[in-house]
Write a structure and sequence with these properties.
Length: 188
């Protein structure tokens, strides 16, 4: 699951406390949730990128997850009102290259032109992404593609309609400059 969003400026400090001490532990207590990470933009918007890894897409349509979304805690209800511009997608990982996740990341969300989707996908998976992790400063590259449409829930009704994710690239590395340069040279 990929999420990106902003938070009303006056709620950022409380959001980060809530997200760290209540929200992530709550989500990770749901059977089938394996890992969650929150990234903060050093430039541009949106401010936040959150990624949850699950055993399978069925977990995201399952009763345990939907029960949490439809019965938010009081603190969750308070924080959801501060969300702005939520993009939320349930995706498959089409392929991953490299080992691990670097300390800096670049997320590129995109929607291919329908007539070019197959060609773009082939180029990404066969030419552009496989060699990235071997470049100085880079660690991994991942292609995500939408696989399931999220259901509308009480949490979503509080924060407003979520925009979908069609496709996304996540490129990570140990050098912010190298990750940024890769965007400029290969994916701009």
């Amino acid at each position: 699951m990929l999420l990106s969003f902003d938070i009303a400026p006056e709620a950022i400090v409380e959001h980060d406390d809530w997200h760290t001490h209540e929200h992530l532990p709550e989500r990770l207590s749901i059977p089938g949730f394996l890992r969650g990470s929150r990234w903060i933009a050093t430039q541009g918007k949106p401010r936040y990128f959150v990624m949850y890894e699950v055993e399978g897409l069925d977990i995201l349509a399952g009763a345990a997850y939907l029960e949490r979304l439809n019965n938010p805690t009081p603190w969750t209800k308070k924080m959801m009102a501060h969300y702005r511009g939520m993009t939320r997608g349930f995706c498959t990982v089409s392929n991953s290259f490299g080992a691990g996740i670097g300390q800096t990341a670049l997320l590129i969300r995109f929607k291919p032109d329908p007539g070019k989707k197959t060609t773009l996908r082939k180029w990404l998976l066969e030419e552009a992404l496989p060699g990235l992790p071997s470049k100085v400063g880079l660690a991994s590259a991942h292609l995500f593609e939408a696989a399931l449409t999220p259901q509308s829930t009480n949490e979503q009704r509080i924060r407003g309609k979520d925009a979908p994710v069609d496709s996304a690239l996540l490129i990570t590395g140990y050098s912010a400059e190298s990750v940024a340069a890769q965007f400029q040279s290969e994916f701009s």
